[in-house]
Design brief:
Layout lengths: L2 H18 L21 H18 L4 E4 L2 E4 L3 E11 L7 H16 L2 E3 L2 H11 L9 H13 L6 E14 L2 E14 L5 E12 L3 H8 L5
Parallel strand pairs: 3-4, 3-5
Antiparallel strand pairs: 1-2, 5-6, 6-7
Helix pairs in contact: 2-3, 4-5
């Protein structure tokens, strides 16, 4: 066998073998997130949560209570975060729990709200055999608040996060607009506050179309 043919065949087989093997790399802090080619990922959910929570908490900054000459900070408002509803066109998989934890962390660090631990919330719902969306029925709300008080976890507000999406198609390519909405409800008065964050993402059939969109080319 010709030596050059043998070496070329061996190198081709080695290259094919290398291409078929999965690889991974640790991403350093500050490195841009990977962009999902078929659905939303870190590049979508991280900025949505950061924007919505920053603006919501800024509107509910810690108030002060007059106390003679001095003032005292108002006690943190007890909040029951019921969870994340996904009403978008995509399955969000393990991001649902991660979104919950990120929002909960914002609440803990805000010093404006004192969230009820998720384990207590889940236990209360399980005890009553109730879904989060059923809590807003008046009778169910009374039972749920009583159950939480028995656990030593009273609360003043209910928070629900909802993810929705809207899709605009152009041939094989499409744009998807993601919306994260935070609904904060006072359980005593029924009044609620709402904060939303939006992000648009394009999905392209070819790399050339993606490059043209990034550079602002028109068809």
């Amino acid at each position: 066998m010709d030596r050059r043919y043998f070496l070329a065949s061996a190198l081709t087989a080695l290259a094919a073998s290398c291409r078929s093997q999965p690889t991974a790399a640790v991403r350093t802090p500050g490195q841009p997130d990977m962009v999902g080619s078929q659905s939303a990922g870190a590049e979508t959910f991280k900025p949505l949560v950061a924007q919505a929570m920053t603006e919501l908490l800024a509107r509910h900054c810690t108030q002060v209570i007059p106390a003679g000459v001095n003032t005292l900070p108002a006690p943190p408002k007890r909040i029951c975060f019921m969870g994340v509803e996904n009403r978008s066109a995509e399955e969000i998989g393990d991001f649902k729990d991660q979104i919950y934890q990120c929002i909960d962390l914002h609440l803990v660090q805000s010093q404006t709200f004192q969230p009820v631990n998720k384990r207590y919330v889940d236990a209360g719902l399980m005890q009553l055999r109730m879904r989060p969306d059923q809590v807003f029925i008046p009778q169910n709300m009374r039972m749920f608040t009583a159950t939480m008080e028995q656990q030593g976890q009273p609360f003043d507000y209910v928070l629900i996060a909802t993810i929705t999406s809207g899709t605009t198609r152009e041939g094989k390519e499409y744009q998807r607009d993601y919306l994260l909405t935070m609904e904060l409800t006072d359980i005593r008065t029924g009044q609620y506050d709402k904060q939303a964050a939006t992000l648009s993402k394009g999905y392209y059939h070819s790399h050339l179309a993606k490059l043209g969109n990034a550079m602002g080319w028109k068809r």
